[in-house]
Amino acid sequence: MVALPVVPERAVDADGTWTDTKLVALRAELAADREALRQTITDAERVLVAIQGDGSGEGAGDDQVDAGTKTFEREHEMSLAQNSKDLLSQVERALGRIDDRTYGACESCGRPIAKARLQAFPRATLCVSCKQREERR
Ligand SMILES: [Zn+2]
User: Fold this and answer.
1) How far apart are the CA of 131 and the centre of ligand 1, in A?
2) What's the CA-to-centroid distance between 37 and ligand 1, angstroms?
3) Which residue, 10, 55, 74, 88, has most beta carbons within 10 Å?
4) What pLDDT score was predicted for residue 5?
């Protein structure tokens, strides 16, 4: 990639396209998110295995408080792992879109996604109007 001078106030050009400098920084940020999410998923899955492997099955010798605590912990770790997997797939999509130079274009209508939206949600793949339409379905 050609090295460009760092001009932060022009990180996004007037026409909504992204400069290479900004993309390099964003890519690093997303790659760091990806590592953190993978770690979170690994940790959650390890805890789940520990909870499941602990004790000798449903109710055998557990008192109700322990069983309730385990159920709560299991549900918490499962939703944590699931949320992290969803985020991870969004991060990987965004990284792929940076690499194939389609980053910043709406996946649905192809128009540029507003830069303010991408700065707030770097993983966004839909423009605001397409996102709203999807949420109404
Ligand atoms: Zn759109």
Assistant:
1) 7
2) 27
3) 88
4) 47
| Whole-prediction pTM | 0.72
114 Cα–ligand 1 center, Å: 10
Res 62 pLDDT > 70: no
If asked whether residues 35 and 93 sit together in one domain, one would say yes
* Alpha carbons 121 and 30: distance in angstroms, whole number: 11
